[in-house]
Amino acid sequence: MRFLSPALLCITSFTSALFLFQDWNQTWHTNFPGLTWCFESSITAWIPCAYLWICFPFYYWYLRHRNKGYIRMSNIFKGKMVLGFTLVILCFSNVFFVVWEKSQGIPRTPAFFISPAVVGITTVLALFLTQAERMMGIQSSGVLLIYWLLSFVAALVMFSSKIQHALERGFLEDHFHHVTTYLYAGLVLGELVLFCLVDHPPFFSKADNNPNQCPEASSSFLSKITYWWFSGLLWRGSQQALGVDDLWPVRKQDSSEEIVAWAEREWKKCHSRTQHKMESVIFKKGQKTETSIAEAEEREALLQSKHSQRGPLLRMFWSMFGTYFLLSTVCLVVCDVFLFSTPKVLSLFLKFIEDQAAPSWIGYFCAFSMFLLGCLQTLFEQRYMYMCLVLGLRLRTAVTGLVYRKILVMSNASRKAATTGEIVNLVSVDVQKLMDLIIYFNGTWLAPIRIIICFVFLWQLLGPSALTAIAVFLFLLPLNFVITKKRSQFQETQMKHKDERAKLTNEILSNIKVIKLYGWEKTFMEKVLGIRKQELQALKRSQILFSASLVSFHSSTFLITFVMFAVYTLVDNTHVLDAEKAFVSLTLINILNTAHSFLPFSINAAVQAKVSLNRLAAFLNLEELNPESSSRNTSGCVQASITIRNGTFCWSKETSPCLRSIDLSVPQGSLLAVVGQVGAGKSSLLAAVLGELEATDGCVTRKDTAAYVPQQAWVLNASVEDNILFGKEMDETWFNRVTEACALHPDLETFPAGQKSEIGEKGINLSGGQKQRVSLARAVYRKASIYLLDDPLSAVDAHVGQHIFEHVLGPNGLLKDKTRVLVTHTINILPQVDNIVFLVDGMISETGSYQELLRRNGAFADFLHSHVTAEEKPPAGFAAMGDTKGTITTGSGPSQEKPLSGDPVKSAVEKETIPVSPDCTSAAATSGGLTKAERTRHGRVSAGVYGAYLQAAGRALCVSVVLSCTCQQALAFSRGYWLSLWTDDPVHNGTQQHTELRLGVFGALGVVQALGRFACTAAVLLGGVLASHQLFLQLLSSVMRSPMLFFEQTPIGHLLNRFSRDMDAVDSVIPDKLKSMLGFLFNLLEIYLVIVVATPWAAMAIVPLTVLYAAFQHFYVSTSCQLRRMEAASRSPIYSHISETFQGSSVIRAHQDQQRFISKGNFLVDENQRICFPGAVADRWLATNLEFLGNGIVLFAALFAVVGRTQLSPGTAGFSLSYALQVTGVLNWMVRSWTEIEHNTVSVERVREYLRTPKEAPWTPNGKLQEQVWPTEGRIEFRNYSLCYRPGLELALRRVSVTINGHEKIGITGRTGAGKSSLVVGLLRLVEAAEGAILIDGQDIAQLGLHDLRTNITVIPQDPVLFSGSLRMNLDPLNQYTDADIWTALELAQLKNFVADLPEQLEYKCTDQGENLSTGQKQLICLARALLQKAKILVLDEATAAVDLETDVQIQSMLRTQFRDSTVLTIAHRVNTILDCDRILVLENGQIAEFDTPEHLIAQKGLFYRLMEESGLA
Description:
Elements: H1 5-20, H2 24-27, H3 37-65, H4 75-103, H5 111-136, H6 142-169, H7 175-196, H8 221-226, H9 231-239, H10 256-286, H11 293-303, H12 306-354, H13 360-407, H14 412-417, H15 420-462, H16 465-510, H17 512-518, H18 521-571, H19 579-620, E1 631-633, E2 640-650, E3 659-667, E4 671-676, H20 682-690, E5 694-703, E6 706-709, H21 720-725, H22 732-741, H23 745-750, H24 768-781, E7 786-790, H25 798-809, E8 819-823, E9 835-840, E10 843-848, H26 850-856, H27 859-870, H28 902-909, H29 917-922, H30 943-953, H31 955-983, E11 987-988, E12 991-992, H32 995-1040, H33 1044-1049, H34 1052-1094, H35 1099-1143, H36 1145-1150, H37 1154-1203, H38 1210-1220, H39 1223-1249, E13 1276-1283, E14 1293-1300, E15 1305-1310, H40 1316-1323, E16 1329-1336, E17 1339-1340, H41 1346-1350, E18 1353-1356, E19 1365-1366, H42 1367-1371, H43 1379-1388, H44 1392-1397, E20 1405-1406, H45 1415-1429, E21 1433-1437, H46 1445-1458, E22 1463-1467, E23 1479-1484, E24 1487-1492, H47 1494-1500, H48 1503-1510
Parallel strand pairs: 1-5, 4-8, 4-9, 6-7, 7-8, 15-22, 15-23, 18-21, 21-22
Antiparallel strand pairs: 2-3, 2-5, 9-10, 11-12, 13-14, 13-16, 16-17, 19-20, 23-24
């Protein structure tokens, strides 16, 4: 104790001296400042030591858990250790020397002994950590660099003290301590330099050893905190166009593989915990009363509120990202400490300016202190932003992964609740709102704290007058919250309309071919624009409220200043408003202003994120498929492959059962046919086996793997080969056998790149039959044990169907040993199946073999006889009744065996050519590609794009915006200048003169400025709404006017991206950033003006710094814009993948291929993040460097004020410096706003990209449909007509001349490439004529508007298309017919009873793509639609393929009756369907080969006769 007491006394005496200012004159009020020896040798030396010992346990724990491999001993490491051990020796030599001195009787205080010992021991700790870092692979240490920096500062203080001591008293007085101090300072400087360098990369690192790794990990600490490691990419981007390969792979900790797996674990944990709580609450409450069933349901609904849905999601986010977010928050808090230190230093500086006798070093000290504080504030703020953006990217990865995985397990009820458009909005717009919240969330609690601290400091300056400011602030605060709450309601409305628009846009783009065929573009455009008008109305109101909110906050700042100064000066005449009080208060008010600005953004971000969080939670909480609905049994003891016991199934819990009392056993290796009328439940039975239905009773057991072929073929936007392989290894032999059996060889020969040819999105460049055969080939290739086939033969010709049955499905086919469940309407194959299940109204009516069912003479026999007797003669390939040998009965001869050769199959397959394939195939004849990748422009956004945006907003509005901004900024300058004059007013008898006048003018200027700010803000935001409206209208009109080729080459994901993400940027982001940028630009000009007026010499520094600033920005923008464009292009494949997965989820689940699709989704997200990460770092690089420049401006303004303080009044100096201190924030925010504008203007560029694409002919020549009745007869005349799909290609039709009389029924047939569909393409002008003309009733169709033409020709396409909306809207989109007309059409289409039984009849809501109706029902609705129109010309394209034969016969009869006065063109997929036509047109190589009555053509024995022979009809 006796040994330590002098040291304690020393510390106590120093502390008392410091805080009681006993020795303050020695340090502060002197021309040569210095610290006491006691302070230097104890506190100064111990601060670095304390820092390292405090950090040690945390840092060592971090090192132990972050092993990156070890680094071999490098020269840098050896240098660190040598210098370190030298320092240890030096410190302990000091200790031993003091001990020796004491032994010699020289008096020394214990500080001489303790300080070097503490420093020495701490240096040993630093060496230990250096070794630990090497073993753990740390190449550059921030902790130790800061330690050596603090040590160097401490050494520098002692070094300068020793120099001063030597100058005063001589070097020889204490030469040992002098020498050791100099050596110590030199060695510490050496360590500091070595720790600034980077060591070698570690060996045996667990990280990926890709040579193109992100350089951040291997950069120095200084490079990391200033983001200079990013400069290499910026330089490369400014010199050349960047590609994805130039960017670094996504870091392991940011990858989907890591993040999404973690998110899934946390979500399951949090979700199950919530479910458990809910169940327990419902159970407890349910026990209270007996009549608790309905009440429990009601309670469950209450418990499933938005909050309870949101809870698990919030907990998941917190458990994943909470720690990292808290660390970023610490950075922001430290940043605020430096922020609030600046006003204190400014206060000292203004006192210095006022006190002419003060030593000059104080002014320089304050100037450099403000610079240092500004730089530290910048580093911590930018680190906060960097951490938030990294966190945001991880959040997006997690959410996208969860949403994608949810799509794969959604139940049928859930699929009705969410459409593709809404899901795309979730992973684009809503996730962005959550990312914004991460940045702004801290503002919700930190901004109020900043405001409180400001008021505390203001109290210190102005006393109780500050309380009045609090009163004003509290008075205005509720107003802003009311505005914000009201605005959130408008935003919810806007988001609702946005979802509706996205859903409708998705449907339009998905079904654009049908819309064009019917000429419905205007109708659907009006629907979209109607929703858009409501969306923009909500946005407009929201923007006006936002303007009011911003102005309210800014005005509240002015009001606080005004009231505070008014109360302070008017309450007591002796209260003088001097420069220190006014401008330090003004600086605090500026901080208050920043907090005020941040608060509405924060609240707004929180409100929007809450809405998005609710939407996301609602989606993730949607009902999932019950994995127990269909159990798999892998044991070999079960003989039956599929077993259903007493099964009752429904599509969702809310609907009535679609299958009842199903008992079914399918033996292994058997072929089971499922037949029944339309809507009997055939497809539902397959869905039940797959586990897609909700089992309300009974169970389903399935043995081994299954493959599924849906009724509506689902194909990927990939090559034919990839579609068939579907993730399996390529086996050439098996692949060829499968494609041959599925009759795909003839198609592959015609494709430009064979099996490598790309299939367009949704199979847009394939016919229905081709899609179905690719879908079948995919299933066959998998070699599964069970095959579930939903009417795969419906879309193909009868002959191709027979080929597929014999080579794939039948007793001798590729699948002969597999279990096959075949839903079919093709009854001629039934004798060859093992068993038949006959369904009636969702129940099994009969089951057994073909012969057994006929002998029973029950419902199945009636069904069969009705099909056979309904026709005058059996259709081609119809098996004779009772024939079980699988023979083929021709229409004119006895039963005979007729083996199928390749040629007739090829001939039949070739009938499925499609209108657009010749042009599509030419898109990339060498690569087989069809769709165009999104173009990524390079360099900066052109001035033309900005001009287009401003033109869309309106020139008058742009001029008014500039004028209002100039006026309000001039008023702001006047207010500040007036205040500086006020503070310089002389003081007479303790009071200032003209206080009332000064105050009145100050207040008037503030009020007028507030009005100017509102006018400016509202004008910019409303101008943005106007521009958005115009750009959307241009985009929609341009896309709808594009020809079909455009849609075949442009994936829907690209278009949806334009209509969702890009339009969202145009709607909200650009106006907001433009408003910010203009505000900051005019503010910056004002600051420059103030500094130059106060200290003209500062212009010498401002000019070069501004040039440097412009150079930095120019250097950065080129790279940044490229990254933004690449990022935008990389989003589209994600949306396309989500859309494809949503549509084909049942196939993916059936094939148990979820993991492969998840992996592809992960890859696409990672590729997007690979571009996003450099984009985020680029912003931080720019902001950090520009803020350093801004701090430089502050430094020079202060230095020139010190130099010229004799000519400066305190008011002018305060005016200049208080404004200069704003420059860092203004520069930072201005550049951030400008770069955001530049980045988001890419969206304008992308939206306008489609304005320049080729367009169709005008819809109506004079802007209105023709008035005369046309056509009257339906006479069609082709005159020397030729058609070419694109310049440079061969003609698809060659000089065709033919006349079709009115009311004639014409069949069109021919081989592949003959031009059957091209004839219809030309008739509807989907492609314009190369030469010649087509006349209808004497009118050249090329002279007509497209809508005049297309609305008078009715087409019934092969694939039925319905839109989400009422049944009535689907039947009559143009709203032209009465309900009575519609009911008549429904009756004729055999749908009247079905619709009458629906709950809402004609107002029954069809879901997306009509998923709540069977394919047959959808086909009949399309037929009813045609019956309503009763056009003079009808084109049939396999319109009845999806209905059963009985219904088909009735429909054919009805068509003959109802359209007896119309000209009917039938494209033949089955030759027998056109045998009753008046005449048959046979095409070959684009020319007419034959054209006559069927009897004459058969008698001629020409090409048509050969086609009949190939089909078994001759």
